[in-house]
Specification:
Layout (H helix, E strand, L loop, with lengths): L4 H11 L3 H4 L6 H9 L7 H8 L3 H11 L13 H25 L6 H23 L4 H10 L2 H9 L1 H8 L6 H12 L3 H11 L4 H9 L10 H15 L13 H7 L10 H17 L1
Helix pairs in contact: 3-6, 4-6, 5-6, 6-8, 7-8, 7-9, 7-14, 8-14, 9-10, 9-12, 10-11, 12-13, 13-14
Length: about 280
């Protein structure tokens, strides 16, 4: 019986999981620098503006979002200095990270990558809401939510056929998906994301969240990490998922079972509509 090209590729992948890291493309340098600026206490709005301004394509993407209904500024924003003044440092930085992820997914979205993109955005938006309501760093929570599934994204980009195959298999729990990834690739998306973020020299706080976002019980002393973990679950439940579950968790059950979870409406449809609207605005900008 002849061996198909897909079967041959699977055997090669199972021999050596370094294939993934050899195919990792760099995250946009501007977005990485903006992430590094997050740790600085003396960072100014002008520094961030000057970081973005020399890159015409990146600046254009930021300006599109700045002029979208998402910001709803009454006058047209025509340059980065004006955008930085209107958006402010924290908002501008969040936009830069969002544009960075969009740039990382350069080219037309496959259905799988589109699901990954929407899930990451939804998780970031939910985490931002919860963090703000609990007096936590909403900017960090949003950025961590955006980046938490970067390992899944790089897997889907590096091997779309194989990852697409395992991503459509119905599972009972996120750990089932991790096990399937390890069976196919020798590594799961949490581990892959941690290696990727480490290669980008991201702060340790991001690596911890990327590594453990499916294991909230193991997270202690890091409330933003717990927020991102539950935001990931909520995004899946609200229709912004990447993996089909046989019996999806109910939104109301997650709210009830999560202590001190504030900042979210009681009606899941209200939140799902809000998220869908914001994602459409970003995609159409």
């Amino acid at each position: 019986m002849a061996t198909t090209s897909e079967e041959r590729q699977e055997k090669e992948l199972q021999k050596d999981d370094s294939w993934l890291f050899k195919q990792m493309q760099p995250f946009p340098a501007i977005a990485l620098k903006a992430l590094n600026l997050m740790a600085g206490t003396d960072t100014s709005l002008l520094q961030l503006c000057n970081l973005i301004r020399p890159d015409a394509a990146f600046s254009a993407e930021v300006l599109r979002i700045a002029n979208s209904p998402l910001v709803a500024f009454p006058k047209n924003i025509t340059n980065m200095l004006q955008a930085s003044m209107v958006l402010g440092f924290h908002r501008l930085r969040s936009v830069v990270i969002t544009v960075g992820l969009k740039s990382y997914l350069a080219g037309p979205f496959t259905p799988l990558l589109h699901s990954c993109w929407r899930h990451s955005l939804a998780c970031g938006m939910i985490a931002e809401r919860i963090a703000a309501a609990n007096s936590r760093d909403k900017d960090f929570a949003y950025t961590a939510g955006i980046l938490h599934d970067i390992g899944r994204i790089v897997m889907a980009m590096a091997s779309p056929d194989f990852y697409g195959h395992i991503a459509i298999q119905k599972v009972d729990h996120p750990r089932d998906m991790l096990e399937a990834e390890r069976t196919f690739y020798g590594i799961d998306h949490c581990q892959a994301g941690t290696v990727l973020a480490g290669s980008w020299q991201l702060p340790d706080a991001f690596l911890e969240i990327i590594s453990h976002h499916h294991d909230a019980k193991s997270l202690t002393g890091d409330e933003v990490a717990s927020i991102v973990a539950v935001s990931c679950l909520l995004a899946e439940t609200l229709g912004f998922g990447t993996v089909p579950y046989r019996e999806p968790l109910r939104y109301a059950d997650i709210l009830i079972s999560t202590p001190n979870l504030r900042g979210l409406p009681a009606d899941s449809e209200d939140l799902a509509s809000e998220l869908a609207r914001e994602i459409r605005l970003i995609e159409s900008a």
